Amino acid sequence: MNATMSLDKTKHYPVMLDQVLSIISPQHGGTFIDCTFGGGGYSHAILKYPNTKVFAIDRDQLTQQYANILVKKFPKRFSFFQNKFSNLNKIIKSDLNPRAIIFDLGLSSFQLLDHQRGFSFNSSGFLSMEMGINKYSAYDVVNTLDKQHLASIIKILGEEKDGRLIANKIVKYRTKKPIKTPEELTSIINDVKKNYNKYKKNPATKTFQAIRIYVNQELTELILGLIVATQLLSNGGKLVVVSFHSLEDRIVKNFFKLYSNLNKNPSRYLPLNKKKSDLFRSLSKKPLTPNKKEINQNIRSRSAKLRYAIRNNNSFFYPEEFQKQFSSYFKLEETRL
Ligand SMILES: C[S@@+](CC[C@H](N)C(=O)[O-])C[C@H]1O[C@@H](n2cnc3c(N)ncnc32)[C@H](O)[C@@H]1O
After folding, report:
1. Rounded Cα distance, 17 and 203, in Å
2. How far is it, in rounded angstroms, from Cα 261 to Cα 309?
3. CA-nearest residue, atom 2 of ligand 1
4. Positions of E strands within 154-247
5. Ligand 1 center to residue 106 CA distance, Å?
6. Full-prediction pTM beyond 0.85?
7. What kind and span of H or E run contains 34?
8. Which of 12, 36, 59, 217 for mutating ligand 1's site (highest number of atoms within 8 Å of CB)?
């Protein structure tokens, strides 16, 4: 299978496409939900099989142009909604019975490469970092958020040990003039991380990750997205997630572990299949990762981790324990501007 697809002049590589397809097996037909449409790589690959239907979602208005291509090509089998995936249960009817719901988290190459979006370090465009349907931009965050909260965001959401120092520097800088571009923000961060030559990645990577996550409330979205997706799946339905950093992977891993009957040490008085506190009957124990060939072809795939779980026939119950476990992310990402 050729994982490359060109809906635009820019080459687009859907990450771990072969593995995703082999888990969801669209050759048997059925309905699929693509929660992160992006350039449409997954949706298109599924629709190539007859007897499939795809409902796709993306928060980014600019993905509509790629969706229009598929609407034209598959008018009866493809629908697109510009929305956040945490709203999945408001968009999709509860009796749809999808065979799989798929999340491919993070940014698409189109977003990353568009200098006007403000995601890349050397961009002189506006410091936006908005994926779409946002309450504020990165500009608002770095120029108005209080120092304490800014430091926590950089430290926790970026796993950046110098969070406090970087927040201090940002706040000092903005008293003179507002920080308008990613380029400006990168140089402020580099000033703190002076010995950055020893780093392989750009020293601003972790801070950019943190601010982007905050602007898009990405962890809250993921937690709520997993919950509503699980609610929509019925017995045998698959929940497939491709994540790109440890914070995301930890959330997915813990969700599957908490509500799967395989990885626990249940009460010895209760037979495994009788436990009613589970939502999944099977899960991928270890995350799948891209092979060398894919990494060579698309370097951005190198940090991808794929996990999936299969819904059992227990009725849905709200996974409060999971939400409680990550309640600190809800607090951290809540609107303060
Ligand atoms: C890595 S790309 C997906 C690429 C896609 N699988 C493909 O093959 O073209 C991630 C996409 O998810 C979207 N996205 C991220 N978070 C979202 C959310 N909470 N709700 C809806 N879409 C989201 C982004 O706007 C982006 O377009």
Report:
1. 30
2. 11
3. 108
4. 238-243
5. 6
6. yes
7. strand 30-34
8. 36
